[in-house]
Amino acid sequence: MGKTIAEKILSTRSGRDVKANDIVVAELDFIMGQDGTSPLAIQAFQEMQARRVFDPARIAMVIDHSAPSPLEGVSELHQQMRSFAGEQGICFYDIGDGVCHQLLPEQGHVVPGDLVIGADSHTCTYGAINVFSTGVGSTDLAAGLISGKLWFKVPETFKFVLNGQLPAGVYSKDLILHLIGDVTADGATYMAAEYVGEAIAGLSVEARFTISNMAIEMGAKAGLMEADQKTLDWVKQHSTKSFTPVKADADAVYARIKEYDVSWLEPQVARPHTVDNVAPIGEVAGTPIQQGVIGTCTNGRIEDLRIAASILKGRKVKSRLIVAPSSRQVMLQAIREGLIEIFLESGAAVVTPGCGPCVGTHNGVPSDGENVISTANRNFKGRMGNNRAFIYLGSPATVAASVIKGEISDPREFLR
Amino acid sequence: MDLKGQVHKFGDDVNTDYIISGRHKFKTLDMKELAKYVMEDLDPEFYSKVKAGDFIVAGSNFGCGSSREQAPLAIINANITAVVAKSFARIFYRNCINTGLPLIECDTEQIDEGDELEVDLQKGVLYNRSKGIEIAVTPLPDVMLKILSDGGLVEHFKKYGTFNFD
Q1: Which of A53, A367, B69, B111 has the most C-beta neighbours closer than 10 Å?
Q2: What is the pLDDT of residue A1?
């Protein structure tokens, strides 16, 4: 009987021939913690009476959730992370370096076939480059730091077969929002998602990250894709590590398979207050918008900024706009290409690479009753720091079009 | 372990942002302080209403969203005895076992706000004393029972120095 990508990676890393629902202890290729989760992990590490991490070269800590620190209490927690990383000799990314899920692939830490954990729920992002990566909490992170291992229940797999090509003005964000709206917020709970088909083949690696990033929003443990030539080229540009890509067998067993034709898809928007409350743009167009956000681990990459800038170029925003590039490298590239100038000229506020505007720690908390449209992955009530605000989610193009008009707008109006 | 208390009922898809908001959780490791804001965005009065030993009861997909372990820790520190739901999101589920918060997965249709519950974790049975009914509970996997019986993952690692499920 054939195996899924998840079954193959967990078999290799546990040294056993495993299938869905088996429980394994597996060896980890890379481990990540951010500033919302690492301080508790460091505390657990100490309580577990450990002295050294298993391998400093296979661990990164990132300050991105509150970067730079907006509060004294946060500064103290950041300092604990700096001390721990310094003592242990682990790779450390400080304020301004970027969002963890941009940095791990961009800096070449994770490569196809790897098994990775991160103490952040959007760790599933690297599935786009054929990595089995999943989010864990702080105590699991501490256990990983000490042993280099974690226990896993081998997930069943939900296969999404995506046929056709996305039309102009419709992006990978629209596609994943549509899938989440269709299967709902717990449609793939405890499962790995596998995304296959010509629609995936047609996307850039950057656009694919957006899809894997949001696998967790349908409850999935991982959002996996096979490595094709685009993946191999992208990974070799970013990493010097050797790797072995993993393909699913033709006779692999899937818990569920759903097929979609994406060629008719329109821009999609998730309405407050759940990610699966998705509607085509026509149903929400005209909703007044006070603030837009372009950035985050979902859509803060250079391609996203290029798409938004192509719409904003030479225009002024009616709503406030916050742009947070996903890393220092992305921001530098955006400066070189003149994108930051376009954003600033349009009236946007460009802030430090980081998670702040998405996660409500700082950098753009909306006021009572305001509507926000964001390229982020979550629109839960209170998510941006005010539980009396309303958050809509869309693609960078949809956000750019909406802030120009001051209301939710179809980006296809701006295509030339 | 015999658990008894009153029900505070919530719906489906209660996410970890609702359990403890990001605007509080990044500030401190003082969980007693964070506990004051537990469930704040769904019910601002929640913390003041809870009595020690009470249960949170919900629908499906409880604990979805962010991986923040502050969520189970804030619930524990608000003196909630256990969370009962139709299903749990997987990261939250692991975090509860690792930190020692009992989870009870069962049908919650016949449990209402204010009901008196009693749970026998060993036998895997939940009694709704207010309605005089018994509800079957989905058993935990052996690996999780082992971690819970050791007192959480920190205690497990103190004992063995690594994972030990043999």
Answers
A1: B69
A2: 85
